[in-house]
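$ ./design --mode recover --in tokens.txt
reading tokens...
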């Protein structure tokens, strides 16, 4: 017997009673035009694709320029900037510690020796201290270097008044030197030229400091600042490349220069490309028409019911447009981010996101086509390695379809994506081995990025599923499992108020599920919907045989016509209760159709007997269900299972032979009554349904060994 999930989601549950939106041809055309417009935008407004080069890898092909362009030449810029600072020599300044010590010595002389008053013409101590402060501040700013460096200071437009042309012959950081008098004269002029300090005071201070030897220390900060400013004044250098010029040779190691050339060529191609060129527009329109036509032909052949339901059509287009938009926004973010992520991420995974939505909301065949369609369209337009993108996304698509067949809870979406990531790891490793690429940071980036893409997809799917289910009124397996919960108010009422009907519904569900599985119909839907197919009996449970006490028949108080009306009304009552409880529309279809337009034969026969066998006096329409007849395979299966379960209770012996005869009789009578003419159930499928129900019911009521009556045994001896 096939596995439980073999028939899962193979058929789409379309509500039989459709509103204006669902069946309007003008709305269908509008939906298709929206899809075509979105597809055109995605195809037309695309990034230019060029070969992707990975830093430090070996180029597999020759790459030549497709257009004239200029690229930022970092090597040329570096050379010019190094040349600009070539003549910058070391810069020194006076050792500040030595300056502090000399000041302390000068202050002691001023306090302990009054000779300075005579030399300064009776200057006050306060004037002397102010002059020393001024001198000390000026000397602290003094920088000593050669003439070439001072020229570079002027070239850099930096203040040069504190620079003095003086460098000792030996290392000034290790030896002490007398600074020449001409340098002191320049220092004196720089510090005191615009001051009010008297000349004698200036002469005294300069003489004191000039008579000492000095140790110069490197001024690293000033030297580095000068180099930095000089390099900044050199602009970014650009090198011209003409169309046809060689960018990289086959087998050559990829450098940052090659990558810069490829990026610049891509920008030039984007700039040169005219999106409003008539040829470009016509090409995009033709490609859009071709792709839309491919979709139409597929659905026309394989899923014609989708084309007749605007609700499902709009759902499919919503998922496809949402996936394309997600891919485009991700691409735009990576490009506008300014980093090299767009080149580093070799295998972006967008298709699994759409695949799992299609599997949960529709079925695997639609998921296979639509996801493959998306993979091809995205490989045409996104800035990706087309072969790698297609292989990885198509492989993960198949894994998602296989893993999604058992989803019954929303959290299982994450487990599906975990399996998909495992598959993507194998494919990525295979690509690296196949292309003989080095295993380094690029491999880690691809593995991590694939995990991130799938994690985000799982989060989005978990959040979007309830929204899409409620918006488009889709009955997914997840929702079906929720309706199986015994705590549901209607099921609780059935179990308490009509326990016989509840048990009947459970058995019918198992029979219908087994039969649906054999013909690849929606087996889970059959099992769940049958739990609710007889809820209308809750209004008058005592009038139905399975709920009656032994020896009590409520129909003895009614005429056959009244009894038939009570029995028939459980369908309309069930529809009313189902709508009040907001049950899904496919459930309501089952309630309406599970008896079709069949005859309540028992009471029809009693009425005929009252008329002494003259059937012309009996209005047959009063004893028939209002229908409609089953309009889906699931509905027809449930009709057979419902009748079989009820009729099997009347059999004296539940053996395989008697069950077989009963099933054959039920199918024959339903077929003769033309109940299956609207459900598209073939003779081959009807045969499989027959065998499945016989096997299931026989297994459920298999005979046991008859044990002899147990008697009390006296073992006393």
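writing sequence...
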């Amino acid at each position: 017997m096939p596995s439980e999930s073999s028939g899962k989601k193979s058929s789409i549950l379309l509500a039989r009673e459709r509103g204006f939106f669902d069946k309007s041809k003008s709305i269908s055309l509008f939906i298709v035009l929206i899809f075509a417009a979105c597809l055109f935008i995605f195809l037309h407004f695309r990034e230019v694709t060029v070969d992707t080069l990975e830093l430090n890898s070996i180029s597999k092909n020759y790459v030549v320029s497709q257009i004239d362009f200029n690229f930022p030449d970092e090597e040329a810029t570096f050379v010019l900037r190094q040349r600009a600072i070539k003549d910058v020599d070391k810069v020194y300044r006076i050792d500040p510690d030595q300056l502090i010590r000399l000041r302390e010595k000068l202050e002691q002389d001023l306090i302990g020796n009054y000779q300075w008053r005579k030399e300064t013409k009776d200057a006050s101590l306060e004037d002397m201290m102010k002059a020393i402060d001024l001198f000390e501040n000026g000397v602290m700013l003094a920088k000593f270097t050669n003439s070439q460096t001072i020229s570079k200071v002027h070239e850099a437009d930096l203040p040069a008044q504190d620079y003095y042309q003086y460098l000792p012959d030996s290392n000034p950081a290790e030896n002490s030197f007398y600074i020449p008098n001409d340098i002191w004269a320049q220092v004196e002029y720089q510090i005191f030229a615009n001051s009010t300090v008297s000349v004698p005071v200036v002469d005294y201070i300069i003489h004191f400091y000039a008579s000492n030897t000095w140790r110069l220390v490197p001024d690293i900060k000033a030297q580095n600042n000068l180099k930095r400013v000089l390099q900044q004044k050199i602009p970014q250098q650009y090198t011209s490349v003409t169309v046809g010029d060689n960018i990289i040779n086959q087998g050559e190691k990829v450098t940052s220069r090659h990558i810069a050339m490829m990026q610049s060529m891509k920008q030039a191609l984007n700039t040169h490309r005219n999106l409003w060129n008539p040829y470009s527009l016509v090409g995009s329109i033709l490609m859009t028409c071709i792709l839309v036509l491919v979709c139409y032909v597929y659905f026309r052949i394989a899923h014609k019911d989708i084309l007749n339901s605007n609700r499902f059509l709009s759902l499919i287009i919503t998922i496809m447009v949402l996936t394309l938009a997600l891919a485009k926004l991700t691409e735009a973010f990576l490009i506008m981010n300014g980093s090299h992520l767009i080149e580093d991420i070799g295998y972006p995974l967008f298709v699994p996101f759409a695949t799992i939505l299609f599997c949960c909301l529709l079925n695997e065949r639609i998921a296979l086509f639509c996801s493959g369609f998306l993979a091809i369209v995205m490989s045409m337009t996104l800035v990706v390695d087309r072969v790698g993108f297609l292989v990885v996304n198509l492989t993960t698509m198949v894994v998602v379809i296989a893993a999604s067949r058992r989803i019954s809870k929303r959290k299982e979406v994450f487990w599906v994506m975990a399996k998909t990531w495992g598959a993507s790891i194998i494919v990525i490793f295979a690509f690296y081995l196949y292309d003989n690429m080095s295993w380094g940071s690029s491999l880690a980036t691809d593995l991590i990025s694939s995990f991130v893409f799938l994690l985000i997809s799982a989060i989005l799917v978990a959040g979007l599923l309830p929204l899409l289910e409620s918006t488009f009124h889709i009955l997914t397996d997840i929702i079906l499992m929720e309706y199986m919960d015994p705590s549901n108010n209607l099921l609780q009422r059935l179990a308490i108020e009509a326990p016989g009907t509840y048990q009947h519904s459970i058995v019918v569900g198992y029979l219908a599920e087994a039969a649906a599985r054999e013909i690849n119909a929606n087996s889970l839907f059959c099992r769940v919907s049958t739990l609710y197919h007889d809820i209308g009996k809750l209004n008058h449970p005592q009038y139905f045989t399975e709920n009656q006490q032994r020896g009590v028949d409520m129909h003895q108080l009614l005429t056959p016509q009244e009894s038939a009306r009570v029995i028939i009304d459980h369908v309309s009552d069930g529809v009313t209760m189902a709508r009040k409880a907001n049950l899904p529309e496919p459930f309501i279809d089952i309630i309406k159709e599970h008896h079709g337009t069949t005859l309540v034969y028992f009471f029809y026969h009693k009425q005929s007997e009252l008329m002494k066998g003259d059937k012309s006096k009996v209005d047959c329409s009063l004893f028939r269900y209002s229908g409609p007849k089953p309009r889906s395979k699931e509905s027809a299966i449930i009709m057979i299972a419902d009748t079989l379960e009820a009729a099997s209770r009347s059999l004296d012996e539940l053996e395989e032979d008697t069950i077989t005869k009963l099933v054959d009789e039920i199918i024959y009578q339903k077929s003769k009554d033309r109940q299956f003419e609207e459900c598209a159930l073939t003779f081959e499928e009807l045969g499989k349904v027959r065998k499945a129900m016989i096997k299931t019911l026989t297994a459920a009521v298999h005979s046991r060994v008859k044990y002899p009556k147990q008697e009390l045994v006296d073992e006393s001896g």
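exit 0
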